[in-house]
Amino acid sequence: MDSEELFLQMLKSQKVRNEILGIVEGTKASAASKDATEKYSALQKENIALKQQIGEYVENLRQAEEERAGHAEKEAAYRQMFNDKETEVTRLSDECQRMRDKLGELQEQYRASALDVKNLRAQVHDYYLKNDELMKNLQQRFSDGWELFELYQKLTPTVRQILKSGVFVNDKDFTSFICCAAQTDSLTKVWDVAKDSLLNGQKDDAEIIRKIFEYCLTLVNASKVRLKYEYVAVKEGDRFDANTHEKTEDSKEQGKVSHVYLKGFCNTYSGDILRKSLVSVR
Asked: CA of 186: how far to CAs of 165, 180, 181, in Å?
């Protein structure tokens, strides 16, 4: 009997078959155990890498939190500035709404009355133009006011303190700055500080205050039915007039105006000159 026949004869034995199956199953189990070990090792490496990534993320998060806390004060300041501007925008919107309401009244009058159609359309058109002009003026005043508010912060401490005690009580708040600038009493006070700054040689301060005075003059007049305050007319070459001019100490007794340092202003209703123009005479 050759080996092949012997092997086939042995396979007929149940015991031999069982032993062969046992060997095969053992081989499979060994391979599965090795594969599981390799997978476990890979998972451990992935776990270590994941922990490192989490650590880096936590560190980045901590640094971001520190930066956010460091900017909290600036964020509050910007938020306050935004609120101030939002308040002013609301006021402008209300003014526009009042103009729209007025236009609506005119349109209602057009439907309810026997007004001449051509004249009524002309009136409506005129109100639209005035509304557009008002919007432009309000936007410009808001922009100009903010620019002057920032310039005001650059005044020397002494001059700012004088203005704060007499005019701009809360000089850190933009809305308060605008409200104070619109007061009639502010005109003479601001003009006087501008004059004193000029006479004291504080030219930069004087120029800023002169611009603030012009803004105050515009706001005060805007609240009147017609122009109430205006500059006194004066130019270089005019004859010196003690009724409308105030000369500097180095000026001649009589002569012509050689330089206008600060224009005076008057009440157009009464004609009274509230402040004379500060000039030099040669």
From this structure: 11, 7, 6
